[in-house]
Design a protein that fits this description.
single chain, 74 residues, alpha+beta, 4-stranded antiparallel sheet, 4 strands, globular
């Protein structure tokens, strides 16, 4: 579920032409945190509110993630 939200909110949109696109990352959800790591190098994204069924958008949990999202116009 969390990966689907990531794809819908970021990978298919503002990150579609970046190292964070759907086919170029490994992701893992644990305790409400979605971790997205580019396969070919780059900062790991840490996104919060990734609970099943949550209606809240995923949000950056640290400054490095916010920087990456800002760089790509997210």
């Amino acid at each position: 579920m969390q990966c689907e939200r990531y794809e819908r909110e970021y990978a298919d949109g503002c990150l579609a032409s970046s190292p964070y696109r759907r086919d170029s990352v490994q992701s893992m959800a644990d305790a409400g945190v979605l971790t997205v790591t580019p396969v070919h190098g780059g900062r790991t994204l840490r996104l919060g509110l990734a609970e099943n069924g949550s209606t809240h958008p995923l949000r950056p949990l640290d400054p490095a993630t916010r920087t990456v999202l800002d760089e790509h116009g997210c």
